[in-house]
């Protein structure tokens, strides 16, 4: 295949990848919306609802290292297609149960666990395959289009789910999700995951690594990459501290400020709109020159937004001003999440050896999620005891301290040695880093 044909195929991959992600993300989120409502209406129990959330998080966290091993050792196309087929079959199984014996919590929890696993295997493998699907010049665009499809699904799915939930039965929801999943399988099966791949061929007769040896090799590779280790520690601690926002935001708006549900939904939608608009921006702009520096500044911005959530608890505002304030804050947070993630993901795609990508991305996901359940439990306990504004302000302060220490100037210079040529901190430094 000549270069022109490869570029045309890469263009096809860009759009096929985006459409596939949009279809599967939209279907998954509409399904999640419907199942959440169904559990709450059927049981009236927050515990039952929380159990379903755990079924979505825990299997992903436990299975991530295995998904990374599989992505590095086996055909990535096969893993992605089989994961999507397994998703289709899991939904089909739940559909059969709904027709034969009616939906039960046990069936829903089992399906949630399976979908969590298939999503993990598909997500890690797809992320590991970006540089094999598209040329290096369009990696940032591919990552941005991926974020764009997820953001669009996040905006549209609650509206569509809300409209459909009262109008159609649960089996119809399941049939729609199955149809979306089948369409994704068809699209993914047409993609060439080896188009630009640079993976080593396994030599016949060469002793094979066991799974544990392979995972240990991935960890050893990470230890030799100081920048990746810094990113992992930042992700671990930042996600833990961000539990203050995850738990506190809904608690403050609904319990403390008595915001009506429709307006609360608008503030959540503003977050997705911020993500969508900045995903579009990154899909059309040139590649960021100093990604780690840009991400550091955006994380600092996230810390300030997190602390700002406490402002209406300390300063008296009208209801309209409170609503407008939170819409702006959530829009800003959505934008900052994309500014943090997109440059770093592009940098990692280009720097990590193709043979280690699955394990590195899976370890990163495991570490970033490892303290999230602990953070949720801890902050849930703290919000019941202490004033929420002080919890947010102290956590935001710790958030800023963590990023300023772990992404200190010496780490930034190691990540981007070319910044040394821009010293002292002059106009060209500032301009080049944006």
UniProtKB/TrEMBL annotation:
Compartment annotation: Cell membrane
SUPFAM superfamilies in the cross-refs: MFS general substrate transporter
Membrane-spanning parts: 12-32, 79-100, 106-127, 148-168, 174-193, 227-252, 264-284, 296-315, 321-340, 360-381, 387-407
Alphabetically ordered keywords of this record: Cell membrane, Membrane, Transmembrane, Transmembrane helix, Transport
Major location category of this protein: membrane
Domain of life: Bacteria
Pfam families hit by this protein: MFS_1
Lipid bilayer topology: Multi-pass membrane protein
GO molecular function, one term: transmembrane transporter activity
GO cellular component term, pick one: plasma membrane
Annotated protein name in UniProt: MFS transporter
Source organism (scientific name): Neobacillus novalis
